[in-house]
Design goal:
Aminopeptidase; 889 residues; Rossmann fold; seven-stranded mixed sheet; 29 helices; eight-stranded mixed sheet; Dna Ligase, domain 1; single chain
Length: 889
């Protein structure tokens, strides 16, 4: 991909449409560049043949500018945009910002057509284009204000990137009034070419940027955006706010907030719902210590304020921390019986020493996450004295501590002291609890990034080829829906067990096939309208299901048929009847029904659904949402969030076994979604029977255009088995999240010196957070190949794609017992094949000069050795020079 640095560090800028006419876009932009103190060259371009604009040289045409231009700012009428872009290409300009507004905003079709042409020109001319309808770019440290903003941005360490120029302008004003600065500030507008994902990718590699704030209106490539945000969230604070012009719901859902929540949570990003939330969230995340458990202990010198804090925590869905054995050492607390020691209530006259004593006891409890200290002023307790004692303790503590000094007149010095120390201090208990909850949500999102999945197997081998044949059959018959038989076959091919049933077009023939085991029976009239999943309104329990139940004889079945035909003729006169289905009744008091399936969202792609099932359940209210692919841990979390799980926990005698069955069902469904990209919708009603496998009672499915998931599935096509020189068989495959224990054991097989050569520093231990990050990759921008012998990792090749330079960087390790066997060469071969497939230009590695084995391996594969600084050399190989298939050496 082209380097985006020309947008943020240009050495020369041309303003197309530059003018001194007051109020014109060209005048505002040129003035902003000048007032910001931009130190590079500035040129104006205007057909009116000005000699100079605001003191800068001006030309009629871009081609007349005598020097190279890094960045073009387009402030021209909308109808000229498509004509001027080829001129930039001929000049060799690689970056352009379209600041012009009014490009057919009212005519969506015309806007889409124009944006599509801009994107085509960007590719043809090899230009990256920001906009149209964007505010521009501001980089205070570079003294760059290439925008029409009415204010310049103050320097800072947070970057902002959004879609809306109007919101960006207001937000810049809001931040300026509060002294909030930025490292970068820009909006992408309609994103005809350059998208927010591209910008986030670039910012995530900038070490000066500590936080990224994102505003999203539309998402054109959820996969690309999710990868960029996940990469950024591993090293920076990332907060996002989403607004939507259109609020189209995916089929089967009544609220899309859960979909947004799932997307941002899987990205490890904190989602907020207001501009205040964006910046208050940033402030809280920047000042806070790590929160290792998402629960809160409250300490106060008054019951009322403490209970307000607890009530707010419960309202938000937060968790009170258990105080453990600290209660045995804090016997003098007030209201302990009423509060259970949390909140911990001190006397009204509590001193600073009293607070420190209680806090020191709570700090010993490892189960406590954060602590909120609330102090209310009174005649017997001096807030300034309390603050003086508290401040050094809070600064020393490794625990997350939030403080709240209530009042106004008496607590001024206390608040000033905590604010000056950069600690988390709030005006009210509610504000403090909301800040804590922000931290808890962020920590939970980070945990989802680091979570190690279990190794629970699917328990079956799906027949993908036969499933694809079902799709071809429906396509040949020009049907979007699957028939009764096809939908059930699809479920069987993915390991689901179906309830006994028989189906036929001829009702009498169906009756002839029935035996006594079908009674009591249910009868369903199958017609086209209800072959589609989610074919009901907002109240599924009230829909006409075309079913009669508890039928005990063929005579009752015939009577039920007549009734169903009459009702169907009235309700669905235009829906063709396809046949009749009969099933034995399976209802028992200890049987539970669940609804699972998949649907599609226009922005995020396929979604997995789970919740309570059955005719009387409020399925829509209980539907939980997740992005595929799912591992066992994510599937289990999805189940635990549902109301259906609460019912299961009350009734099940073997809860863990039942959870395992449901988890496997969701994993099978997830695999189906990954394998079958044309699956557009699926709704399944399953029955959980004690001690037995799940049974599918009913299923509806439909197909549509192929759609990729937002998250990359495991690239099983890259798995291969090889033989080493000594004939040992080795499996080489991409790493999995559940490989964390094996990876820890692998690193444990090296001595300190070998680890220093690999990690460029002394290493002794690898903790869960780091190991989880090393195992859980996106398979697109980062790839890790592991070599396994008898289930143990014996070699690793780690690869990173630099999206700005289109280079693939690698690092390799092989256990001492497998060195000299050709394994390192096989991993290098795999890397070169992967690099060619990804279309990267070069493969590089930074190596310590003393690492002779690594340097020797690079030389054997044709890498060029480039001396660097401080004992580090760079290996570099241009893939253009590798013409023939690579053989391991």
């Amino acid at each position: 991909m082209p380097d985006l640095s020309a947008f943020f560090q240009p050495k020369s800028v041309a303003v197309l449409g530059a003018s001194e006419r007051p109020g014109s876009m060209g005048a505002v932009v040129t003035t902003n560049l000048k007032d910001a103190g931009f130190e590079g060259r500035i040129y104006g371009v205007n057909l009116k043949d000005y000699d100079r604009v605001f003191g800068f040289p001006c030309y009629r045409y871009v081609r007349q500018i005598p020097d190279p231009v890094d960045l073009a700012l387009i402030c021209l009428p909308p109808e000229t945009i498509l004509r001027v872009l080829p001129q930039l290409g001929r000049k060799g300009i690689k970056a352009a910002i379209i600041l012009t507004g009014g490009l057919s905003r009212r005519l969506a079709v015309e806007q889409k057509r124009r944006n599509q042409r801009i994107e085509e020109l960007a590719r043809e001319l090899n230009i990256r284009i920001l906009g149209p309808h964007c505010l521009g770019v501001l980089v205070p440290d570079a003294k760059l204000n290439a925008s029409f903003a009415h204010l310049n941005a103050e320097p800072g360490r947070s970057a902002y990137v959004g879609h809306s120029a109007a919101l960006g302008s207001a937000l810049l004003d809001w931040a300026g009034a509060r002294g909030i600065g930025f490292s970068h500030f820009l909006t992408a507008g309609s994103s005809a070419d350059l998208r927010i994902s591209d910008i986030v990718d670039h910012l995530s590699t900038d070490r000066r940027v500590r936080a990224i704030l994102i505003h999203l209106e539309h998402i054109r490539d959820a996969n690309r955006l999710l990868i960029a945000m996940r990469a950024a969230a591993r090293s920076k604070k990332v907060l996002a706010i989403r607004t939507q012009v259109q609020d189209k719901l995916p089929p089967g859902l009544i609220d899309r907030r859960a979909v947004d929540d799932e997307f941002f949570a899987r990205a490890g990003v904190l989602q907020v719902d207001s501009v205040d939330g964006l910046f208050s969230g940033l402030e809280v995340l920047s000042r806070a210590r790590p929160l290792h458990r998402p629960n809160l202990a409250i300490v106060s010198n008054g019951l009322g304020p403490a209970m307000l804090a607890r009530q707010q925590l419960q309202t938000l869905g937060g968790e009170l921390a258990p105080v453990g054995t600290a209660s045995e050492r804090l016997t003098d607390l007030w209201y302990a019986d009423e509060t259970g020691y949390n909140p911990a209530i001190l006397p009204a006259n509590a001193s600073g020493d009293d607070y420190v004593r209680v806090l020191s006891e709570l700090e010993k409890e490892h189960a406590i996450g954060g602590i909120l200290v609330v102090h209310g002023p009174n005649r017997r307790s001096d807030p300034t004295e309390v603050a003086k004692k508290l401040l050094p303790w809070v600064k020393r503590s490794r625990r997350l501590v939030l403080t709240c000094f209530l009042g106004g007149v008496s607590i001024g010095k206390a608040r000033q002291a905590f604010d000056a120390a950069g600690l988390l201090n709030f005006d009210s208990p509610n504000d403090a609890v909301e800040a804590f909850f922000t931290l808890a949500k962020h920590e939970m999102a980070q945990e989802r990034l680091r979570e190690t999945p279990t190794s629970m197997a699917l328990g079956f081998q799906p027949d993908r080829d036969q499933a694809l044949q079902l799709f071809r059959q429906a396509e040949e018959q020009k049907r979007r829906y699957f028939t009764w038989a096809e939908a059930r076959m699809l479920m069987r091919l993915y390991g689901f067990q179906m309830v006994d049933s028989t189906f036929g077009v001829d009702f009498d023939r169906v009756l002839e096939r029935l035996t006594h085991r079908y009674f009591p029976a249910s009868l369903r009239l199958v017609h086209e309208a209800y072959c589609y999943p989610f074919a009901y309104n907002e109240t599924p329990a009230e829909r006409w299901r075309g079913v009669r139940i508890e039928l005990n004889s063929p005579e009752e079945l015939r009577q039920a048929r007549d009734e169903l035909e009459a009702e169907k003729a009235e309700r669905f006169p235009n829906s063709r009847t396809l046949g009749w289905g009969v099933q034995p009744m399976r209802r028992k008091i200890d049987h539970l029904q669940f609804s699972l399936g998949m649907t599609r969202d226009e922005s995020y792609g396929p979604l997995i659904l789970f919740g309570e099932g059955g005719s009387r359940a409020d399925m829509l209210a209980d539907r939980q949402v997740a992005l595929p692919p799912l591992n066992a841990s994510l599937a289990r979390q999805m189940i635990l969030r549902s109301h259906g799980y609460q019912v299961l926990a009350e009734r099940s005698d073997h809860l863990e076994k039942d959870l395992a069955r449901l988890t496997r069902a969701l994993k099978r469904l997830s695999q189906m979604v990954i394998d079958l990209p044309e699956l557009a919708g699926l709704e399944v009603n399953i029955l959980l029977q004690p001690g037995e496998e799940l049974l599918v009672l009913g299923v509806a499915a439909c197909r549509g255009p192929a759609q990729r998931p937002a998250l990359n599935p495991y690239p099983s096509e890259l798995v291969e088995r090889i033989k080493l020189k000594d004939e040992r068989s080795i499996l080489i495959r991409p790493i999995r999240g559940e490989d964390e224990p094996q990876l820890k054991a692998f690193y444990g097989g090296f001595d300190a010196d070998a680890l220093r050569l690999r990690f460029f520093g002394s290493r002794l231990n690898f903790e869960h957070r780091e190991l989880a990050t090393l195992c859980q990759i996106d398979y697109r921008r980062e790839m890790v190949f592991v070599a396994l012998s008898e289930g143990a990792i014996v070699g690793e090749m780690r690869l990173w794609t630099d999206v700005n330079t289109n280079e693939l960087e690698f690092a390799i390790m092989v256990l001492p017992a497998f060195q000299g066997t050709g394994l390192a060469g096989q991993l290098m071969r795999k890397t070169l094949e992967y690099g060619r497939a990804q279309g990267v230009d070069q493969i590089v590695a930074d190596v310590l000069a003393e690492n002779q084995p690594m340097l020797g391996l690079g030389k054997r594969f044709g890498f060029r050795v480039e001396p660097d600084e401080e004992g580090v050399v760079r290996l570099r190989l241009s893939l253009q020079s590798v013409k023939e298939p690579v053989r391991a050496v």
